[in-house]
Amino acid sequence: MPRPCVLWTLLLAVLAPVGAVGADDVPKRSPKEALQAFNDLIGSWRGSGEPNGTREEKQRGFWQETIAWQWQFKADDAWLQATFTKGKYFTAGELRYLPDGDRYQLTLHTPAKDALQFAGTLKERRLTMDRADEKTGETQRVVLSLLHPNRYLYRYEVKAADHSTFTSVYQVGATKEGESFAAADDGPECVVSGGHGTMTTNYKGKTYYFCCTGCRDAFNDTPEKYIKEYEARKAKEKENDK
User: Fold this and answer.
1) What pTM was estimated for this model as a whole?
2) How far is Cα of residue 189 from the mean position of the Cα atoms in its chain?
3) What is the number of other CB atoms lying within 10 angstroms of the CB of residue 232?
4) Dihedral angle at the C-alpha atoms of 110, 170, 135, 133, nearest 10 degrees?
5) Cβ neighbours around 41 below 10 Å, total
6) pLDDT by residue (tens digit) across 127-171?
């Protein structure tokens, strides 16, 4: 075999294992692990909404709503559930993780009982999700920005079929109820989600903290499972700090 061919064959043999590593070899995150990025959402929020437009249009269309977020669990699945009180456009919602493409899916329920499903990615604490409306042909977008542990913003935008840019329709700024804006981030940790613990329960003489009733109920169903996961998570964090 000519010398150049020998060298080329050896090069391919060295590079083959590297090229063989594909997306399937990348460790997949569980729904709970992926949704922990939204732990700050857990709790009750006071929302103030206003439409896009002039000052007079904003004042005329202003509204207030309450949004309550909590964890939900079923076997190995996990998602975040939102309940809107006096919501102008939505009554409820579910935020789930889609391992395919490392994306998130937000389903929003309207007062007319429609279910609008948006999907998108999280980048630098900003979740941008789109959906195509079959009736109008427009693309609808929800942008959820985590501004601070005690403040977030969600914005609704649309893009007509013959347009290339989105136009803002309205936005809602939300502040967490019962906590000051400058509240410290440290404190008791939820044994289930790793979020901020605000309620407790006793198990075998020890007190455990939870961020919401969803986590508390899941723990009460299978406490040993979540204690084991919590201890493994803390051991991993300790190892990473070395």
Assistant:
1) 0.84
2) 18
3) 10
4) -90
5) 25
6) 999 999 998 899 999 999 999 999 999 999 999 998 999 999 999
